[in-house]
Amino acid sequence: MIATIVRRSFANRKKAAALMIASITFGTAIASSLIVISMEIGGRVSRELRAFGANILVEPEIEGMADLSGQRRYLRYEDIVRAKTIFWRHNIVGIAPFLETDAEITSNGKSEKVGLIGSWYYKELPLPGETGTFPVGIKTVSPWWSLSGKWSDSADNIVIGSSIASEFSVKPGDRIDVDGTPLKISGTLDSGGIEDRQIFMDLESLQRLKGAGGKISKVLVSALTAPMDTFAYRDPASMSKAEYEKWYCTGYVTSIAKQIEDVFKGSKARPIWQVAGTEGKVLKRLKVLVYLLCLMTLAASTLGVSTTMIMGLVQRKEEIGLMKALGAGSEKIALIFVTEGIMIGLAGGLFGYLLSVGASQYIGTKVFGIALEQRAMLLPMTMAGAACVSIAGTVLPIKKAMEVRSAVILKGEQ
Questions:
Q1: What is the mean pLDDT of residues 393-401?
Q2: Orientation angle between helical segments 330-368 and 395-402, nearest 10 degrees
Q3: Nearest-angstrom CA–CA distance, 11 and 23
């Protein structure tokens, strides 16, 4: 009997049914697209935020008298590739080693002592135990640095910071004395920071020049990380075995820094909090925004179903009054509305999911430059969620239907 009543209800109110299904369809389509974005937003946005620069600094660990005496310590060159052997190796998207020394430059009657830095701008290193390679160098950790000309490829040429080039009135192709040796300027570097007042050389060339073979002063690492929460800031030494495993196997910047520290002998790895902290805040706020938009969209769909049903209730008062007069209880009246809500929800959920497939691909392409992955598990989730939203929209119409008095309706009174 209920099935017959529901079928006739849809047949007699086709426009209203179509409007409710459309409301659920668009609501769930937007919500499903937002869910897809929320699933992908961590990795995608984290990758975009890598343009902020490296988020982990690896330096030699200096303790005791060595620290007091100012003795210089170095990291090992061969440990660079070992960074790609840690548990979170696939999250490391950039590594740049640096050898820091000083030099005196002279040109056009001017002389100044500046930092002489050995590094790579871009280079491919072999992956440990694999046939492929991975990128390293300044370009992978500081993509905003602008190189004019080409990077130094030998001890006979250098790259100078833009501020030095302006101060000494030199350009690529000119020569400048470095510690009394005339070297050719192969390019200029503009970073907007202290690097603009430094000069750079190929890492291996500077190591040979300074007799520092296999030595590096520091390493900058750019890694994709998970947003920091309270647990991420805990001291690993105070954790239980289970807590430590959870912390170690979560992509926090702190846990990745710890793993990098373990593979660089005699090192101390620490997060660059100005970068890491900003990333975490941005990701959290974006996810909160996505969830709020999702809730608002579903609330609007619920309101659309509820409003349409209440408007249709005026036409159904006689039907409800007659059912009550024939002995139909409140449960049966409510069941009719809930059944209608479930059918509307399932239909709208299916259409909404299909629409969200194209919507999420479009959003992913426009925002991230790549299509977002549409997970199959979203289909049952979307349909179940749409049914719940539609049922929620029947609550007020059911309440109004319960207030219908059969005696008044049958007498022809409103």
A1: 79
A2: 160
A3: 18
Question: Residue 75 pLDDT > 90, yes or no?
Answer: yes
- How far apart (Å, rounded) are the C-alpha atoms in residues 128 and 14? 65
Q: Which residues pair with 189 in a beta bridge?
A: 147, 161
How many Å is the Cα radius of gyration of the chain? 33
Contact between 293 and 34 (Cβ < 8 Å): yes
Token representation of residue 99: 């050898």
- Chain centroid to CA 345: how far? 32
My answer on whether 108 and 207 are in the same domain is yes
C-alpha span between 77 and 60 (Å, rounded)? 12
| DSSP letter (8 states) at residue 228 | P
* Pair of tokens at residue 342: 């479930």
Interior angle at CA 355, CA 349 and CA 359, nearest 5: 130
Helix intervals (H) in 168-226: 203-210
Q: What is the distance between the alpha carbons of residues 91 and 71, in angstroms, rounded to a whole number?
A: 34
Mean pLDDT of 39-67: 70
The residue segments making up the domain with residue 109 are: 55-271
CA distance 135 to 285: 31
Residue 230 tokens, joined:
């309270």
Residues facing 177 on adjacent strands: 106, 182
Label residue 411 by pLDDT band (50, 70, 90).
Answer: low
Q: Are residues 395 and 322 in the same domain?
A: yes
| Burial readout 382-401 (b: 16 or more C-beta within 10 A, e: otherwise) | bbebbbbbbbbbbbbbbebb
Residue 133 φ then ψ, to 5°: -130, 170
Residues forming beta bridges with residue 112, ordered by sequence position: 105
Task: Say yes or no: 84 and 220 in one domain.
Answer: yes
Asked if pLDDT for residue 188 goes beyond 80, the answer is yes
Domain check: are 310 and 261 in the same one?
Answer: no
Q: In this structure, what are the phi and psi dihedrals at residue 68, rounded to the nearest 5 degrees?
A: -70, -35
Residue 381 contacts residue 356 (beta carbons within 8 Å): no
Q: How far is CA 406 from CA 139, 178, 248, in A?
A: 78, 101, 67
